[in-house]
């Protein structure tokens, strides 16, 4: 016979499932929550009433009706309950944002600096930017549940940066420890491609998809893999390193030490190196974007060829995982058509016909903010973090008492 304690533990677990559904979806009706969680409509109604009484969930005005009759009442987490911080350490800048638990960005700041070689400076600057953003948003630090961090390089599950080449100034540094000390907040850290994937699935081109490969094309080529709605990181946290799949038997030496990696032929650095001998002006990523947008045949050819190389590797991954979508993001942004065309050609040729038929290829829509938004989603979607942070304590004035 179940004890009172075990029944309360089950109710608490189900409350957290409802909260998790609202964090992931932003807004949802009771029926949508029931479908998302697998709980009965009656159970969801009881749990929602409990969460409303605690001040954690509020109703918002009626949404658009899908047919005749009154549209369903939509629910969301009360934005006043708490806030989260998102941070992105790119190679050339730091970007931070503060958002409420419904994923609405309240304030955002960024600063250009050499992140790769100046870890301490970058960390100090990020902490200062967070303080400014919190003040701008009118959020007390005590109301912040936690901080999510996107790093543009490989990072172990414990937060340790291991690359001597991609982030040379960060080697051996534990980003979680360093930022926890500076921010005095719980910190979660992940690779930028993983968090770009999480952002596009949560807010962007992949919304509504549960199995997605997000391909990030920048100075390297990485992938974030979402399976059954959750990031797949692998045992080491390094799953998705597409850039180090070998595509040329006797190719150029890669920064990882191997030869012929995808990164050596399809990263933005590789594209730029092909254009420099035939271009008289400065050739950088901005110039490449301008050349493609202006219809430069050489630039379009280089980007299209890179797309085919990437698409061939992605096709193999699709044959293994059979995702519903491939989303392409990264530095090429608004001129990604040439890249997408190359990827599409390769998917059509190398993916198994049933896999290709079920697959949608989409361009990312969040641009340079994707990784920062993914860092926010990392915290907003972390039920354990919210529980350990004591979400109820953030709303004691409403009588909330979520149990640990």
| CA-CA gap between termini | 23 Å
- What profile does the largest beta sheet have? 5 strands, mixed
- Mean pLDDT across the residues is 85
Query: How large is the radius of gyration?
Result: 23 Å
Treating each run of at least 4 consecutive H or I residues as one helix, how many helices? Answer: 14
Shape category: globular
**SSE order, one letter for each helix or strand:** HHHEEEEEHEHEHEEEHHHHEHHEHH
Structure, explained:
About 40% of the residues lie in helices and about 15% in strands. It has about 400 residues and is α/β, with parallel strands linked by helices. The strands form 3 sheets. Strands 5-4-3-6-7 form a 5-stranded mixed beta sheet, sandwiched between helices. It has a 5-stranded mixed beta sheet with strand order 10-9-8-11-12, sandwiched between helices. It has 14 helices and 12 strands. Helix 5 links the parallel strand 6 and strand 7.
List keywords for this structure.
disordered C terminus; 404 residues; single chain; 5-stranded mixed beta sheet; globular; alpha/beta
In a few lines, what is going on in this structure?
The protein is an alpha/beta fold and 404 residues long. Helices cover 41% and strands 17% of the residues.
SSE blueprint and pairings:
Blueprint: H1 4-25, H2 30-37, H3 41-53, E1 57-60, E2 74-77, E3 83-89, E4 93-100, E5 105-112, H4 119-137, E6 144-151, H5 175-183, E7 187-191, H6 192-203, E8 212-217, E9 221-227, E10 230-231, H7 263-266, H8 268-275, H9 285-293, H10 297-321, E11 325-330, H11 337-350, H12 353-357, E12 360-363, H13 370-380, H14 383-389
Parallel strand pairs: 3-6, 6-7, 8-11, 11-12
Antiparallel strand pairs: 1-2, 3-4, 4-5, 8-9, 9-10
Helix pairs in contact: 1-3, 2-3, 4-5, 6-13, 10-11
């Amino acid at each position: 016979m179940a004890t009172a304690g075990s029944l309360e533990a089950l109710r608490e677990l189900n409350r957290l499932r409802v909260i998790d559904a609202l964090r992931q979806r932003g807004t949802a009706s009771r029926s949508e929550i029931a479908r998302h969680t697998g709980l009965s409509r009656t159970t969801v109604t009881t749990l929602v009433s409990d969460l409303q009484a605690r001040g954690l969930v509020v109703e918002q005005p009626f949404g658009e009706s899908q047919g005749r009759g009154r549209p369903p009442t939509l629910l969301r987490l009360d934005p006043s309950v708490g806030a989260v911080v998102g941070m992105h350490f790119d190679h050339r800048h730091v970007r931070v944002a503060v958002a409420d638990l419904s994923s609405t960005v309240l304030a955002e700041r960024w600063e250009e600096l050499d992140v790769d070689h100046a870890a301490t400076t970058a960390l100090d600057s990020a902490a200062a930017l967070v303080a400014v953003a919190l003040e701008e948003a009118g959020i007390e630090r005590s109301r912040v549940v936690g901080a999510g961090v996107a790093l543009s390089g490989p990072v172990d599950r414990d937060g340790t940066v291991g690359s001597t080449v991609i982030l040379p100034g960060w080697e051996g540094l534990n980003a979680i420890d360093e930022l926890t000390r500076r921010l005095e907040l719980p910190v979660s850290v992940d690779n930028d491609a993983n968090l770009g994937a999480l952002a596009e699935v949560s807010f962007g081109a992949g919304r509504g998809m549960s199995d997605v490969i997000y391909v990030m094309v920048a100075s390297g080529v990485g992938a974030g893999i979402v399976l059954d709605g959750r990031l797949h990181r692998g045992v080491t946290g390094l799953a998705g390193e597409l850039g180090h799949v070998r595509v040329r038997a006797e190719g150029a030496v890669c920064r990882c030490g191997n030869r012929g990696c995808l990164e050596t032929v399809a990263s933005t650095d590789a594209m730029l190196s092909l254009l420099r001998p035939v271009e008289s002006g400065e050739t950088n990523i901005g110039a490449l974007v301008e050349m493609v947008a202006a219809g430069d045949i050489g630039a379009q050819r280089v980007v299209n060829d890179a797309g085919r190389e990437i698409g061939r590797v992605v096709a193999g991954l699709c044959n293994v995982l059979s995702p519903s979508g491939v989303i392409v993001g990264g530095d090429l942004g608004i001129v990604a058509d040439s890249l997408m065309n190359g990827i599409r050609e390769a998917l059509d040729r190398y993916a198994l016909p049933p896999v290709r038929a079920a697959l949608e290829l989409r361009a990312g829509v969040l641009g340079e903010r994707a990784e920062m938004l993914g860092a926010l989603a990392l915290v907003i979607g972390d039920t354990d973090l919210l529980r350990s942070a004591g979400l109820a304590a953030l709303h004691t004035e409403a009588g909330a008492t979520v149990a640990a």
